[in-house]
Amino acid sequence: MAPQEQPVSTASGIWRELCPRCRRGAIFRRPVYRAPLSMRDHCPVCGLQFEREQGYFLGAMYVSYGLSIPPVLLLVLLIWKLTGWPYDVSIGAAFVAYLPAAPLVARASRVVWMYIDQALDPR
Fold first, then answer.
1. Pick from 16, 22, 2, 25: nearest CA to 118
2. What total of structural domains would you count in the chain?
3. Residue 92 in contact with residue 98, Cβ under 8 Å?
């Protein structure tokens, strides 16, 4: 007899990029450093269609914006205080410093958006 699997929490499912319905199937095909947005069409475990309609991930842009503002603001303030550069130059430097994180944030925002959508409209 196989041991009963422990249910995966929402936070753990988001962190591990698992299907929002069953929390067992992987959403992405490859690791973020190899293919940032290479998503599966359906969950390999429960069959949930990840992209419900054309333009579905438009809502993920709002999540991405919300996830990006705090670290970029922190970077701007740190660069501005530590370097003494003008504020506009500090904003540009923070933008460049944040670019490597963009694929991570884009991927995380899609996962969070799917979890929000699944909570509001489970199908």
1. 22
2. 1
3. no
Instruction: Decide: helix, strand or coil at residue 14.
Output: helix
- Does residue 3 lie within any of the structural domains? no
Reply yes or no on whether the pLDDT at 3 is more than 70.
Answer: no
Tokens encoding 57:
């991930």
pLDDT tens digits for 23-68?
Answer: 999 999 998 888 888 999 999 999 999 998 999 999 999 999 999 9
In a domain, 21, yes or no: yes
Domain presence at residue 66: yes
The amino acid occupying position 92 is G
Supply angle C-alpha 72, 76, 77, rounded to 5.
120
Q: Check residue 70 and report its DSSP letter.
A: H
Residue with tokens 């944030």: 105
Do the Cβ atoms of 26 and 17 come closer than 8 Å?
yes
Q: What is the span of the domain harbouring residue 55?
A: 10-120
Query: Which are the contacts of 72, defined by CB distance < 8 A and separation ≥ 6?
Result: 94, 95, 98
Under 8 Å between Cβ of 32 and 38? no
Write down the pTM of the prediction.
0.87
